[in-house]
Design goal:
The protein has one helix and 16 strands. The protein is mostly beta strands. The protein has an eight-stranded antiparallel beta barrel. A three-stranded antiparallel beta sheet has the order 2-1-16, with no helix packed on it.
Length: 219
């Protein structure tokens, strides 16, 4: 009888630590990107996440940080294909694209309108980290580049801008499932004097959702 009690105690003593160590491992299985809730299903590799501008906002390419002058676009989109979605904490890898449309310009001397805007060399390598930092990176051969064809008093002018240090950085926020970029600097690489020396890109995309329309969370 004494032997049975010792054996049972030994088994119990071995099982309890296994159960205790197994519980945290389940929590660690959450991926960086989930859909529906922070504890929801992992966003699938190869899946697409996307968003339009947050309601009531515009995408702005200002002539100065937080400036009122420059180009403003009533329509813009952020879309990305998930290349890797590891366990959290970590960083998901994506290939992202940004679109701009319905743009106007104000406060730029000699410039009267916008004929077209094109973001070149997309998609860009993008990471979304567990701390909410979103990093979009170009390469020397394929920089983060925007070509603006503007109407001016002297006719059509083409301005090419490249992101400073070939990187723009944003923030992901689970409160409204948003990705925001604020005053990300672009430098003029070509174009006449009608093209301002620098532009500062600001946009908020929300809600970011998967292909099924479920909101995407960052863990």
């Amino acid at each position: 009888m004494h032997s049975k009690r010792v054996t049972a105690a030994a088994i119990t003593g071995a099982v309890i630590p296994l159960l205790l160590t197994a519980a945290p491992a389940l929590a660690d299985d959450d991926t960086v990107l989930t859909s529906g809730s922070p504890a929801g299903a992992a966003v699938a590799v190869g899946g697409t996440i996307s968003a339009a501008l947050a309601t009531g906002t515009q995408a702005v390419f200002a002539t100065a940080p937080a400036g009122a002058n420059g180009m403003k676009c009533a329509a813009s989109s952020f879309s990305a294909v998930v290349g890797d979605n590891p366990a959290a904490p970590g960083a998901a890898a994506l290939g992202s694209t940004i679109g701009l449309a319905a743009c106007t310009v104000s406060g730029v001397p000699g410039v009267t309108g916008v004929n077209s805007v094109e973001i070149k060399n997309q998609p860009y390598a993008t990471t979304v980290a567990s701390d909410g930092v979103v990093t979009v990176t170009g390469t020397d051969a394929a920089p983060i580049s925007a070509t603006l064809v503007l109407r001016s008093l002297l006719g059509s002018v083409t301005c090419v801008f490249v992101a400073s240090n070939n990187t723009i950085t944003g923030t992901a926020d689970n409160t409204d499932n948003s990705i925001s970029f604020t005053d990300q600097r672009f430098d003029r690489s070509s174009g006449p004097a009608a093209c301002v020396p620098n532009g500062y890109f600001t946009a908020k995309y929300s809600p970011v959702a998967d292909a099924a329309g479920a909101p995407v969370y960052v863990n």
